[in-house]
Amino acid sequence: MAEFTRARGKRQEDSGLGSVLDLLLANARLVLGVSGAAVLAIATLAVKRLIDRATSPRDEGDPKAEQKTLEESWQDLALIKATPKPPKKQRREDLSQPLLSAARPPVPGEACEPRVSPAPPEPPRVDSIPPRCLTLQEKLLSHYSRRLAVPEAEASLALQLSRSISTQLQSFLRNKCPELPFGSLSLSGPLLDGLGAVTADHIHLMLPVVLETALWSLIPGEDTVVRNPQYWMIKRTDLEYFPRGCSPWDRFIVGGYLSSNTLNETLHKMLVASINWPAIGGLLGSVIHPVVASPELKLEVKHDQVELSITLFPVVEMEDKVLLAAPPEGLVENLWLQSFYRAEVSKVKELDAGDAGARQHCLRILNGVCKSHPTLCKLSGSPLTHLVLHLSATSSDWAEESLADRFQQVLEELVGFLETGVLPSYFNHKINLFSELSEEEIDEMGFLLYTATAEPELLLKEK
């Protein structure tokens, strides 16, 4: 009975232990997966055998039983040692790293995301040295050297081509119109005079029209139909004593006045139809052709290294006046435009030579800015030169160190003249250099320049 009770208790204990182990194994499959549950089952089986042998009665004095028990114990221990150990969990170095979520079986059709190892820590960032802020003076000098300095080789080639074309044109006029006393052609323009050249692409050819002073006189612009003091008329005089035909220029008279339109039309026909430009271009290694549709007497020259636009201007010099055959647009004929270009260049260079000033640098920067900006392009040339001359009368410090101050001051003065709509000529205050601008153009220029006075660097940005 005692043995029965003891065996029953042992079976109950075994049954209870087995139930616990079964429950543990069932749950282990859910928690640890198939491979983890297998490992736990092998270890549990070995432990269970050890417990059974420890609680079962021993057959003392039976050496074979003891030997069998010892062999089974070693087998169990070997089984435990041979059981593969589960991989160690990666220890979290930082509590801010999230824990790995529990494993779940893959869903069919779902791509398995590869485990990404944590990126190595980035090296400490070393802030780069911020660029030094340039002053307006430095920006102006940099802009001048980078964008406004014409390469010497390019300028030399442009001048060489222009002189060769001038020589060919002069020879043609003397052969074609020997009766017309044209003077010697000369080159002019910013590339030669250094006030406004941005590129070596534009040359002026000045063709003197030599008049007999006894047969011609000047009529001031105020007395003309346009009432503009900048335009003059050239009247044929003493027709009763010197009738038409006495002067070779009488063939260009319209209504008793030397017509700039008629002279330009005659020269335009010669440039387009009479001169063999392909042959001349072949001699010079370039392609030359006149611009047919332009009201100006213009030639386009294309060379491998440079492209030129050459404009021919008939010019009359009388009574210390320089008049160009450049009439205003419209139906008005016979008008000649008074040019101050030669006086402008002479005066600016004279002032710069007297105080080692930077007026020419300032003018080239201003002309470059205005020429490259569609809103300001009509301000380039004479208006800016007259503005600098006006300012030179009140500001004496034009040293290169004061270039930024003078540049800022020129902008402010220009805004003031645009507000009134009047920029008087430096050489004749009756002439308004803004007379050819519309009110809308003046407003657009004034608004843009008024904004630029607060931040002049905006005008120097490349477009």
Structure write-up:
- The strands form two sheets. Strands 1, 2, 3, 4, 7, 8, 9, 10 and 11 form a nine-stranded mixed sheet that branches.
- The chain is globular.
- The model is unreliable at about 1-15, about 75-85 and about 85-115 (pLDDT under 50).
- It has helices at about 1-55, 65-80, 135-145, 150-175, 190-195, 260-275, 275-285, 340-355, 360-370, 380-390, 405-420, 440-455; strands at about 185-190, 200-210, 215-220, 230-235, 255, 255-260, 285-290, 295-300, 305-320, 320-325, 335-340.
- The protein is of the alpha+beta class.
- Helix 1 crosses helix 2, helix 3 (about 135-145) packs across helix 9 (about 360-370) and helix 11 packs antiparallel against helix 12.
- Among the domains are: about 150-340, Beta Polymerase, domain 2, CATH 3.30.460; about 340-460, Orthogonal Bundle (Poly(a)-polymerase, middle domain), CATH 1.10.1410.
- The protein is built from twelve helices and eleven strands.
- It is found in: Mitochondrion outer membrane.
- It comes from Pterocles burchelli.
- Pfam families: Mab-21_C, MID51-like_C.
